[in-house]
Amino acid sequence: MDHESLSDAKPWLNAYAEGVPHEIDEVTQILPEMLRQSAKKHAKRTALEFFGARTSYADLDERVRRAAAGLRSLGVRKGDRVALVLPNCPQHVVAFYAALRLGAIVVEHNPLYTPRELRHQFEDHGATFAIVWNKVADTVAAFPSDVRPAHILTVDLTRAMPAAQRLALRLPVPRARDARAALTAKAPRGRGIRDWESIERSRPLPRRAPGPELDDIALLQYTSGTTGEPKGAMLTHRNLRANAMQGRAWLPGLREGEETVYGVLPLFHAYGMTLCLTFAMGIGAKLVLFPTFDVGLVSTAVRKSPPTFLPAVPPIYDRLTRAASRDGLDLSTVRFAISGAMSLPVSTVARWEEVTGGLLVEGYGMTETSPVALGNPVGPSRRPGTVGVPFPSTTIRVVDPDDPQIDVAAGDPGELLIHGPQVFSGYWGRPEETAETLLPGGWVRTGDIVTVSEDGFVTVVDRRKELIITGGFNVSPSEVEEALRSHPDVEDAAVVALPRGDGAEMVAAAVVLHASAAIEMEALRDYCRTRLAAYKVPRRIVPMDDLPRSLIGKVLRKDVRQRMLQEEI
Fold it and tell me: Residue ranges of the AMP-binding enzyme C-terminal domain (predicted)?
């Protein structure tokens, strides 16, 4: 089937749930204007909830204007990069929209990254402004002078909690000390370091102050892409607003101004960013924020603010269904649940829908598509085991992985290409990698091998790219291999994905040790923990005499994986 016939026929449109449009409206709003419109429509409604403390839409709008003015007084201007190194908290939402209001480019970071990982990203984007959780502010402040941001604004999460809870954290008992240590730390002092609270005390930015245009870059979201080390995907206001509109169109049963969305996904991840920071704010939802996923925190929140919409990943759904069965956690209010970032087992769907009575459907996307591009219809036509069909205003092709200009025959496996208003504009400062991934005409290569049924449902059957997806996060094998090879006892390494019992993937490594080495594999894992985020550390490390290689000496990761699987049998 050539790409004209597939994209023109669009057989998937017949599978859309009732009320879902084939196309979204033209994008006309930058993201801060979207938030402003929600504040006008739902001024008194709760926008954010954090440990029970609530912020109305009117108050959120005011805080964003004050923060934007404060950032402008520091020198933030259009096109400047503003790095966020924050867990989920109200300050994260305010900082995100305040920076965007000035036309700055937000750069999201995982606050649990190691110093080495964070430094690499700061070296790449060159941000001179950083808004940082006070627990990791020391790390950013210690960067070399040519990498360290000139302005570091430290955020204390406990400032967003109710006063009674803040006081409880100061009690001289071990439990309170442990809870406080998990949430906050003493911020460093030094050149260019200020408290974020002082920024929010500024006089509000005038509403007519100049801001960004639709096609300006709004966000750099770091991803390993289809190959290699992490790089910043450039996402515009148009990309992000379009994806939020596509999500809204996909769920015609949503009630604007009445939904409660649980922010259990990290806002620094593309999935959590879109469904919580943009989609939820765009529909006037109450966003209940959790600094980390914890069943106990969710159970407490359910009693005060029952959720109606839950975007998450399969392990979270599994843990919540177990809590519902074991402890009586009431999830019956969740009408919509959207799973993404990793494969959704059919068994997880069955358990969730039995416990809640609502629907759990799988979606598909990548950072380069803002991120959601496909989804299962929220209705009777959904098909568990597939990633669904293209979103409104989205078109797909299935091509020969070795020559993306050639479309494969209908029903045959091939690499998935995606086209739509949510497709990114390229990688920051990397024109060659951009050309490899973003094809002429705006088609993005996914690196995923799929089949498409006659009625348009897409099933992922393999990955041409060798990224490992664990816990919803992308892990570049090359990055983990570099960390392993840096150990003096390791001569070479190969990192692959191995299946886990729950249908997900885990990071695994084969290593060749120097002849005189005596290191134990667990000690090698401990070494990795000092250089990599926890989710990147190999769960299994296997010593080998040598690694399988091609005729030109390239390590054959597929053969490594096969050998490790055979050793498990």
Answer: 479-554
Tokens 């609270």: give the residue: 197
Report the 3 state secondary structure along 427-445: ECCCHHHHHHHEECCCEEE
Tell me which amino acid residue 295 is: V
For residue 223, report the phi and psi dihedrals to the nearest 5 degrees. -150, 155
Structural domains for the chain: 243-464 (3.40.50.12780), 468-568 (3.30.300.30)
**Cα separation of 38 and 58, whole Å?**
9
Distance between CA atoms of residues 88 and 264, nearest Å? 8
Q: Residue type for 111, please?
A: P
In sequence order, what are the residues at sequence separation of 6 or more whose Cβ sits closer than 8 angstroms to the Cβ of residue 320? 295, 298, 312, 329, 331, 352
37-87 pLDDT, tens digit per residue, is 999 999 999 999 999 999 999 999 999 999 999 999 999 999 999 999 999
| Helix (H), strand (E) at residue 5 | helix 3-9
CA distance 239 to 217: 9
Prior bond of 371 cis (ω within 30°): yes
Question: 242: exposed, middle or buried (C-beta count within 10 Å: 0-12, 13-18, 19+)?
Answer: buried
Is there a contact between 431 and 415 (Cβ–Cβ < 8 Å)? no
Closest CA to 240 of 139, 368, 119: 368
Please give the distance of CA 38 from its chain centroid, rounded to a whole number. Answer: 23
Residue type, 538: P
pLDDT in tens, 302-354: 999 999 999 998 889 999 999 999 999 999 999 999 998 888 888 899 999 99
Distance between first and last Cα of the chain: 40
Give the C-alpha separation, 28 to 30, whole Å: 7
